[in-house]
Amino acid sequence: EKTAEKSKVECCSYPVSIFFIVVNEFCERFSYYGMRAVLVLYFRFFFRWDDDLATSIYHAFVALCYLTPILGAIVADSWLGKFKTIIYLSIVYAIGQIVMAVSAINDLTDADRDGTPDNMSVHVGLAMLGLFLIALGTGGIKPCVSAFGGDQFDDHQTRQRSTFFSVFYLCINGGSLLSTLITPILRGQECGIHTQQKCYPLAFGVPAALMVVSLIVFIAGSGMYIKAKPKGNIMMDVCNCIGFAINNRFRHRSSKYPKREHWLDWADEKYDKLLIAQIKMVCRVLFLYIPLPMFWTLFDQKGSRWTLQATTMDGTFGSLVLQPDQMQTVNPILILTLVPIMDRVVYPLIKKCGFNFTPLKRMTVGMFLAAMAFVSAALVQIQIDETLPVFPSASESQLKIVNMASGQMNITIPPQQPFALGSEQASDYLTFSNMNIMVSLNNPPISKNFSLTVKKRNTLIIPADPNTMYMTQDITSKPEQGSNAVRFVNGLSSEVNMSYAGNDKQFPALEYVYLPQGERIFTITNGIQSCSFSRKFGFGGAYTFLIPSTLLLTENCGNAIVEVEDIKPNTVHMALQIPQYFLITAGEVVFSVTGLEFSYSQAPSNMKAVLQAGWLFTVAVGNFIVLIVAELAKLPQQWAEYVLFASLLVAVCIIFSIMAYFYTYVDPAEIEAQFTRKDEMEPEEKEKNTIELEEKDFKQDQKEKLGKTKM
């Protein structure tokens, strides 16, 4: 039953109440994605956890967010109803966001005002409590909000309801887009009472404020909502009914008992036929859900694997510079573009062409597009691999020689061929399988032994006095997040300090300092005089700057600074990722938007939130599959892993298309109406059938006993 029909107000044939729901969803998604955007950095740099622990806790939180919808569905369908469930869990949600913001206040336990919390366990405890409340809140309302929005439409408003789900999904991505752009900027600010730190309280506080706004907006529309009453503890009824049917079928497994049309029909001795029919509809849809997690397995990797791929690419788009982790914003931008195009242009055009593009056919196409996106990612990865440096294997080491002496050097390092190296020049990396080497110079004649380390890169520096040549360790991987690794080698006889504009931090001797993309001005000073020079950096390079012994601290440092390229910058452009983002987003539009609509249209009136929770549960399972496949496959090449995931999804896509072919669309309201118009079975007749079954059981038992007696 639906209540509050008399208060229903429409605008342009749409219920006014859905506008409150749409605004509520936008604010809630902004709150969730904004908080999640900075969560790993919060773990890594505020709590000082290592990468593995930060990642593990992050994924545990995300998994919990997609598991709690089951709890929300039970509460909504059997106890509070969707409206009250959304209200109460939104309050829990908002409290969780506020607790997260409080946990990030550095001065909360910083009694000595040194910029470091004195009792980190307090901050960790508050953060874990906040995350648990957020997971409970966001997961609990997930299956309710979209279903509650669908309840606002009458049965004849099919087109309006379909458009609502499209707009609903637009709000999700609109909130995601804005929050992932804004909250990292807020985090980058510095704030604090006693010491200035990265402003995590603001980064968490703004999402908390948006969650409060979301709650207020939803409550404001209370008088206009159509509120479907909860219809009992339906989840327990479903479980008990299925359990009874399986048990009853097992007890009557003998061939002497007549078969029934469906295995759930074995429950009709105890349960109402309407309930059995509803459970049949749920089971048919849930059966179709089995292959769906593989789509989310691929889709969710755009925030992990594809972002890591972007760190090895060039993000310069003319005057606009896109950081690797900002490439993810392409997804919500394309969503906002493709949803109206699909809804208003593509689907009507397909319909006019006479092709019956059913929801399950759309979902199949969406899965195929996602697989093609990973094929595209694999092709891009192959191009990237061709430009990456070849690092030493598990049994090798690499060595580069830098000559900072005043003259040319003839160098011999067996088993390599002798070679000449000019002043202020560097060789390419030489590969060695023997970790103990002897370096011989001819001017003056010097020989010296060095020990290398497997899987490492080193640089041998020959200073002005070759007798004091020494070795330093280089990086053996691309700098993370597209940054550039820069270090200086001082060839002067006196100490100098190196720094760069915009940062007072000094360059430690022979240690890499990581700088972002763009032009940087460096200053060299000996305490009395100084000189400056500039260099423009791309993405992902590593450089060693040589300060020669002849340096004069004049304008532009006399153009004497020599740049040695340890690792080449990224040369494959990030624009090549756009096709894979387009394909995965197009797949998401026809898969996810359709999935929301399909789940609602095929769900019984009292189990809609249960099916919504089942849909979201597939997302959680998909995240677990990423970890399982990645761990079991152990593929050395990233492109091969992309191909593996694409192949798995194509296989699943074929299976799903076969399942969809045999699926028959139903009208839940019509089926339920058939049972409400007439009683399928009178109580006396049901009792009679039960007695007959019991008599058959008794006779069968007597025969078995008689047989045993004769033996």
From TrEMBL:
<keyword id="KW-0812">Transmembrane</keyword>
<keyword id="KW-0813">Transport</keyword>
<keyword id="KW-0769">Symport</keyword>
<keyword id="KW-0571">Peptide transport</keyword>
<dbReference type="InterPro" id="IPR018456">
    <property type="entry name" value="PTR2_symporter_CS"/>
</dbReference>
<dbReference type="InterPro" id="IPR000109">
    <property type="entry name" value="POT_fam"/>
</dbReference>
<keyword id="KW-0653">Protein transport</keyword>
<protein>
    <recommendedName>
        <fullName>Solute carrier family 15 member 1</fullName>
    </recommendedName>
</protein>
<keyword id="KW-0325">Glycoprotein</keyword>
<feature type="transmembrane region" description="Helical">
    <location>
        <begin position="202"/>
        <end position="226"/>
    </location>
</feature>
<dbReference type="Pfam" id="PF00854">
    <property type="entry name" value="PTR2"/>
</dbReference>
<comment type="similarity">
    <text>Belongs to the major facilitator superfamily. Proton-dependent oligopeptide transporter (POT/PTR) (TC 2.A.17) family.</text>
</comment>
<feature type="transmembrane region" description="Helical">
    <location>
        <begin position="120"/>
        <end position="141"/>
    </location>
</feature>
<feature type="transmembrane region" description="Helical">
    <location>
        <begin position="53"/>
        <end position="74"/>
    </location>
</feature>
<feature type="transmembrane region" description="Helical">
    <location>
        <begin position="609"/>
        <end position="630"/>
    </location>
</feature>
<keyword id="KW-1133">Transmembrane helix</keyword>
<feature type="transmembrane region" description="Helical">
    <location>
        <begin position="30"/>
        <end position="47"/>
    </location>
</feature>
<dbReference type="InterPro" id="IPR036259">
    <property type="entry name" value="MFS_trans_sf"/>
</dbReference>
<dbReference type="GO" id="GO:0006857">
    <property type="term" value="P:oligopeptide transport"/>
</dbReference>
<comment type="function">
    <text>Electrogenic proton-coupled amino-acid transporter that transports oligopeptides of 2 to 4 amino acids with a preference for dipeptides. Transports neutral and monovalently charged peptides with a proton to peptide stoichiometry of 1:1 or 2:1. Primarily responsible for the absorption of dietary di- and tripeptides from the small intestinal lumen. Mediates transepithelial transport of muramyl and N-formylated bacterial dipeptides contributing to recognition of pathogenic bacteria by the mucosal immune system.</text>
</comment>
<feature type="transmembrane region" description="Helical">
    <location>
        <begin position="642"/>
        <end position="663"/>
    </location>
</feature>
<dbReference type="GO" id="GO:0015293">
    <property type="term" value="F:symporter activity"/>
</dbReference>
<keyword id="KW-0472">Membrane</keyword>
<feature type="region of interest" description="Disordered">
    <location>
        <begin position="677"/>
        <end position="711"/>
    </location>
</feature>
<dbReference type="GO" id="GO:0016324">
    <property type="term" value="C:apical plasma membrane"/>
</dbReference>
<feature type="transmembrane region" description="Helical">
    <location>
        <begin position="86"/>
        <end position="105"/>
    </location>
</feature>
<feature type="transmembrane region" description="Helical">
    <location>
        <begin position="281"/>
        <end position="299"/>
    </location>
</feature>
<keyword id="KW-1003">Cell membrane</keyword>
<feature type="transmembrane region" description="Helical">
    <location>
        <begin position="162"/>
        <end position="182"/>
    </location>
</feature>
<feature type="transmembrane region" description="Helical">
    <location>
        <begin position="362"/>
        <end position="382"/>
    </location>
</feature>
<dbReference type="GO" id="GO:0015031">
    <property type="term" value="P:protein transport"/>
</dbReference>
